[in-house]
Amino acid sequence: MSAPEPRANPRLEGHAAAEAMLAEAMRTGRLHHAWLITGPSGIGKATLAYRFARRLLAGLPEGTSLALDPASPVFRRVAAGSHADLLTVEREWDPKRKRMRGEIVIEDVRRVADFLRRTPAEGGWRVVVVDGAETLNRNAENALLKVLEEPPARAILLLSCDAPGRLLPTIRSRCRRLPLSPLSEAEVAHLLEDYLPEADAAQRQRLAALSEGSPGRALQLAEGGVGTADLVRQVLAELPAVGVGRAHAVADALGRDEDAFTTFMDLLRAGVAAAVRDAARGHADADQRRLLGARPLDAWVDVWHALTRLQDDTESVYLDKRQAIVTGLLLLSQSH
Questions:
Q1: Cβ atoms of 29 and 57 closer than 8 Å
Q2: CA-to-CA distance for 253 and 248, rounded, in angstroms?
Q3: CA distance 157 to 275
Q4: Model-level pTM?
């Protein structure tokens, strides 16, 4: 068994406070027209967005939970993508390249304005979920901004976003921010009991430990990514002494597999972010201090952003992944 898609997932782990806040906003009638749900990848942002959407479409909750019976008609129609009052905007399939686009384009967002001009099919709310708002290109952002500036009545926009800093400030200012935190290791392990029943307890525990609070990352690692995680850990331990030869060897080890590239870069950026975060809190271990010693601490924020741009550019315009890995590792190995 694997985790259901967010639109079809009845479970939400670790975000009870955020869920209760949304339920209270519904009951009091103080619903902002746009919500920016933020946090690291794979922690349940889209799952919460669809959970909220289902409840908006089904009616007021009785308590602090937004849960809806999976057997209910609203749940099933949302899961199937067939509810007339719900629109999802996300990266679409590129038929020419036969793969997912690297970004959300303006044509995707134009559907939002058309959708919100309609009368609700069931007389209630109209809900738009923008899943992966950080992948909006600039034209798409500007189109979405026009919708946010003049929101229609009884319409809610839910933006799930891994990197809110990449959004236009004017978009962020028109949304109510709902930050989610990574799950605890125990919470991830609890979810993996259901999602990976074929794995033994030790395997699930290791995946939970490697996940950094992201069930999505744990599942990604379960699909052959544990070896990639080990490789990232080795590279981080070697930095800044990673030369051209070692960088090419790492790229060769990963090959041209798209999933391996994404997992490697995600984990590499997560490792840098964790080192900076721990150092800022005074909790960095010896390996993290050695890594960060190559630059002033604030310069590592720029390095993380450069790695993110490198990954985004490589995935969105289909650049050479092996060369991107070499470039990223050499960037990390430079001292300033």
A1: no
A2: 9
A3: 34
A4: 0.83
The answer, yes or no, to whether the previous bond of 240 is cis (omega within 30 of 0) is yes
Q: How far apart are the first and last CA of the chain?
A: 47
83 vs 154: CA distance, rounded Å: 16
Closest to 134 in 3D by CA, of 98, 108, 170, 159: 159
The four Cα atoms 183, 189, 194, 196 give a dihedral, to 10 degrees, of 120
Q: What is the DSSP letter of 63?
A: S
Question: Quick one: average pLDDT of 66-85?
Answer: 96
How confident is the model over 192-250, as pLDDT tens digits? 999 999 988 999 999 998 888 999 989 988 887 788 888 998 998 888 888 899 999 99
> SS in 3 state form for 95-162?
CCCCEECCCECHHHHHHHHHHHHCCCCCCCCEEEEEECHHHECHHHHHHHHHHHHCCCCCEEEEEEEC
Q: Which residues contact 107 (CB under 8 A, 6 or more apart)?
A: none
Q: How many residues does the chain have?
A: 336
Residue carrying structure tokens 């997992």: 263
| List of residues 6+ apart from 299 with CB closer than 8 A | 336
C-alpha closest to that of 175 among 232, 229, 136: 136
The C-alpha atoms of residue 177 and residue 196 are separated, in whole angstroms, by: 32
Helix, strand and coil content of the chain, in percent to the nearest 5, comes to 55, 10, 35
What's the angle, vertex CA 106, arms to CA 149 and CA 22, rounded to 5?
50
The token duo for 66 is 């937004």
Tell which phi-psi region holds residue 25, choosing left (phi > 0), alpha (psi between -120 and 50) or beta.
alpha
**174: Cβ contacts below 8 Å, ≥ 6 apart:** 34, 145, 148, 149
